[in-house]
Amino acid sequence: MHRLLALGLVALTSPALAQGPSWLAQATLLDLHASPGASLREGALTIHDGGDRRASFRCTEIARMRRRAPRRTLRAHGARVQLSLGRIRSSTVLIDLTDELCQPFEYETDFRAASARVVSFVGPWVTMEIQRSEAGAGGPPYHNEEWRNVDARTGAAADVLSVVEERSLLDALAADPFVHEHVSDALNGVATLDDARRILSASSDYEGFRQFAFAGYDAEESKTLLRLGFKDPPTGLSPNRVRMLGLSVRVQPRWRRAFEAAARGRGLFYRRE
């Protein structure tokens, strides 16, 4: 429902894009292949919806095609974002995958791909899931996944402590079975989230604990189901996917109306696909 965009190599069919079909605003995945002996910039981008509907164009046509492409708007309490042709934006561009894919590479490669989707949107707080892959000549494929948290009002990076109460989050971390298995009682009495992150990273060999998404809201308890993202240490060229803790955490009073609105459908809670 809230998909973004997809690209791959087929015959050039720009007229389809020029007509501006509405499904273009819901596509999710972008990939770019170079023809044998050609550079990536000479390759064709194909937008598709995961099914049979598709339209293609070249990197040099992006600006013209973007003016014609339809947009999908997601609204939350006091904020909105638009999705169109590989770009997510609010008052500023939050991410632009078409531009990213078409930039010259500093090394030889014959394939690269990227996808982005909004997975959580409550008040001004947007969580985007971004995946990137590439393959060089004769080399193994590389894959990376991340969550990016931003404030839709400014485009600036967002911190979970701008939204939830720190003490509630620390208590939920200390009580989490996965955390307890790896660090035992080391988080008991920890005063700050930064201290907890240092203990978790040093004691568990996991990385991150900074990326987040919201997966629901309990109005009676004023608590959100917080998905706190972390990753296994990178192995070779393919780091694992984002892993998540599920924590029930109290929301700061000033953001509770935004969570109530999201629970009524004005916003988006994370759902595992």
Give me the count of strands.
13
Report strand %. 25-35%
Helix and strand string, N-terminal first?
A: HEEEHEEEEHEEEHHHEEEH
Major sheet strand order: 3-2-1-8-9-10
Shape label: globular
Radius of gyration: 20 Å
The main β sheet shows up as: 6 strands, antiparallel
| Mean pLDDT metric | 78
Explain this structure to me?
There is one protein chain. The protein is of the alpha+beta class and 273 residues long. Helix content is 20%, strand content 35%. The chain has 7 helices and 13 strands. The chain has helices at 14-18, 62-68, 97-102, 166-175, 177-183, 193-204, 256-263; strands at 29-33, 44-48, 54-58, 72-76, 79-84, 87-89, 93-96, 111-122, 125-135, 142-151, 207-218, 223-231, 243-250. Strands 3-2-1-8-9-10 form a 6-stranded antiparallel β-sheet. The relative contact order is 0.13.
Task: Describe the secondary structure blueprint for this structure.
Elements lengths: L13 H5 L10 E5 L10 E5 L5 E5 L3 H7 L3 E5 L2 E6 L2 E3 L3 E4 H6 L8 E12 L2 E11 L6 E10 L14 H10 L1 H7 L9 H12 L2 E12 L4 E9 L11 E8 L5 H8 L10
Core attributes:
6-stranded antiparallel beta sheet, 4-stranded antiparallel beta sheet, 7 helices, 13 strands
Outline:
The chain has 7 helices and 13 strands. The chain is an alpha+beta fold and 273 residues long.
